[in-house]
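debug: dumping io for the single-chain case to check the tokenizer round-trip. Nothing else runs in this session.
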Amino acid sequence: MSRTPLISICRRCEDDDGHDAGNGELLYEQVKALRKKLGLKDLFDVEGVRCLGLCRSPCNVMFEGKKRSTYVRTQVHAVLEAEAVVQAARAYAALEPGEELSERRLPGLSD
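debug: decoded output
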């Protein structure tokens, strides 16, 4: 595993409403572009994956890293929450190995 945290985004998540809310490919491309624009390439990696197996709740994002708990978020809005994914990735990357987020909450992606 990479020494930087990995954010995996399901690229197969599909949009059922015609408004791109569940479009995994769109979310992946937006997060990747924001990461580049904000100069965060050294902070975390982003990968598009074929499927995270949570197809009934698109879009799906997984945060994982060495000696870190894995966090999975479902029903991430592809259009409205790309910035929230980047914000959450920054918070996740800032964790020390073994450290947990308070109440397992990712900033911007937890109710």
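debug: round-trip ok. The first helix runs from residue 24 to 37.
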